[in-house]
Specification:
There is one protein chain. An eight-stranded parallel β-barrel has the order 1-2-3-4-5-6-7-8, surrounded by seven helices. Helix 2 links the parallel strand 1 and strand 2. The protein has two domains: about 230 residues, TIM Barrel, CATH 3.20.20; about 35 residues, no CATH class. By secondary structure, the protein is α/β, with parallel strands linked by helices. Helix content is about 45%, strand content about 10%. The structure holds 3-methyl-2-oxobutanoic acid.
Length: about 300
Amino acid sequence: MAKPVTVLDLQAMREQGKPITMVTAYDYPTAKLADESGIDLILVGDTLGMVILGYDSTLPVTMEDMIHHGRAVVRGAKRAHVVVDMPFGSYQEGWQQALHNATRLMKETGCSSVKLEGGQRSAETVHKLVEAGIPVMGHVGLTPQSVNQFGGFRVQGKTPRDAVHLITDAAALAEAGAYAIVLELVPTALAHMITQRVKVPTIGIGAGPFCSGQVQVWHDILGLYDDLKPKHARRFAEVGEQIKAALTEYREQVQAGAFPTAAESFYMDERALELIRRMTPSDEEDMSEAERVMREVEAAPAPRPVE
Ligand code: KIV
C-alpha cells in the first residue's frame, strides 16, 4: 500500500519543483476516487456548504458538518493527505477556541491537518495550533468566509497596497508555522512573487500556474455545480450531464417495464413458494387448511434456504 503523504513530502515536492495536486472531496466514494487518481491532498472544504448543502455561502457550515463529512473522507483516503477546513465561527474568537475545535477535527475525523482563513490576523492562532502539534494550512487572497467584507467573490491584491498586504499575510502565516498556504483569486504575477518569497508550498486556486500546487473544487472541475462557474475552473468532465442521461434512461426503462429483468432479480425455492401459497390463502380459501399446513410445516424439516 502507498505511503500516506505527509507535510514533509509536500515541502520536498516544493523544493524539487514537483507540482502538488489537491482537490476537494466531501464523502467516502469521492475521496476514494481522488485517492486512486493519485491526488496528493484532499481538502474537506467548507465549500461543502455550497456544493453539497445548497447554501449560498460557506458561512452557515458547522463543526458538526465538517466532522460528519471529514470522517467519511478519511475512510476513503489511503494515500492522500486529508485537510479539513475550520468552519466560520470555529476559530475567530481566538487561539483557545481554535485549539479546542482543531483538536476536535483531528480527533473526531482522523484527518492529517486543518485549514483556516486569514493572514496576519490568524498568525497567532496558527502558531498555537502548530505548537500543539496540529499541522495548519493557511488561506489568503479571497477568503470565502469574509465574502461579505469583500462584497463578492472578487480577485484580491490588484492594487499595490492590497498586494503588499497579501505578501505580508502570506509571510506571517509561513513565519507562524503554516505548512502550506492556499492563494485564492490572486493575480498570477503576485502569486508567483509570494511563491518565490515564502519558504512553504503555495497552493493556488485562480492564482495562475506558478504556485507550488493547485487546488480545485470537485464539483467545479467535474461539471456538477452550475450555480457559480468560476473562470479559474476548467471542466475536465461533464459528470452532471452524464448523470442526467443515466437517470433519464433508468426512468424510461422502469416506465417501459424493461427494468428490472430476470438478470437483475432473485429467485426462491419452488417448494417453499408452494408452501407459502398454502400458508397464506386468499379470503375465499379455507383458513383451517392454512392452519393444517402451518402445523405440517412446523413439524417438517426447514425448507432449503431462499436465494
Ligand atoms: O472550502 C474550499 O473548498 C476551499 C477551496 C476553495 C480552497 O477553501
